[in-house]
Amino acid sequence: MDTRVKICGLTTSDAVSASVEAGAQYLGFVFFPKSPRNVDIATARALALDVPMGVAKVALVVDPSDEALERITGEVPIDMIQLHGKESLERVTEVRTRFGLPVMKAVGVSGPADLQALNAYGMVADQLLVDAKPPQGADLPGGNGVSFDWRLVSKRGWNAPWMLAGGLTQENVVQAIQMTGAKQIDLSSGVESAPGVKDPAKIQAFMNAIRAA
Ligand SMILES: O=C(O)c1ccccc1N[C@@H]1O[C@H](COP(=O)(O)O)[C@@H](O)[C@H]1O
């Protein structure tokens, strides 16, 4: 299966190496203090400098200010900004223009009404991240290890390339790809041994599951 994978929430060089060696095409660094996967700028910079050419480094941010984005993009050699908050269509356009980097906009899906947002953001973002909505009362807008009803996005396309996210694991990823037709997937907690702790064996097993499909 020729699926591109983003492994998100990397905090150590071991996790970066395991993801690169297993064949991930995108690596995500989380800049969100409430997350167990949060990294400071110095750590992210050191990790990103070791990523080989051809593997995209993604900065995940949640309703960021321009100042926060200036600090991140000024010090960390990133290739893409992932907006994972309540950013408006206008804000997506503004961030793309101001920072000169591709923007991936995350959209939470729990029912058919959410597909409108994907249509709209697909017109302004470079990529879409189609994720589950966070459970009621969750501290995090993503990274909660929950899936949504994949039939909602079965064989759908939008104006921008998209990644499927939300509760993906080595056990369910093949079915998720078969049901949705996703060509790109994104995951975080499904390859962890504890919140924020990536497990190299789970990363390899996840990639093996996709390749064997
Ligand atoms: O992972 C986080 O801590 C996080 C924090 C804030 C916003 C988004 C976050 N994660 C994103 O959510 C997807 C799905 O996560 P999971 O596989 O369900 O655990 C993850 O890949 C990140 O893009």
TrEMBL record:
Q: Which InterPro entries match?
A: Aldolase_TIM (IPR013785), PRAI_dom (IPR001240), RibuloseP-bd_barrel (IPR011060), TrpF_fam (IPR044643)
The record's catalysed reaction(s) read:
N-(5-phospho-beta-D-ribosyl)anthranilate = 1-(2-carboxyphenylamino)-1-deoxy-D-ribulose 5-phosphate
What is any Pfam family matched here?
PRAI
Give me the segments passing through the membrane: none
**Is the Amino-acid biosynthesis keyword given for this protein?**
yes
CDD domains listed in its UniProt record: PRAI
GO terms (molecular function) for this protein are: phosphoribosylanthranilate isomerase activity
Keywords assigned by UniProt?
Answer: Amino-acid biosynthesis, Aromatic amino acid biosynthesis, Isomerase, Tryptophan biosynthesis
Q: Which family does it belong to?
A: Belongs to the TrpF family.
The protein's name is N-(5'-phosphoribosyl)anthranilate isomerase
Organism (species): Celeribacter marinus
Tell me what gene encodes this.
Answer: trpF
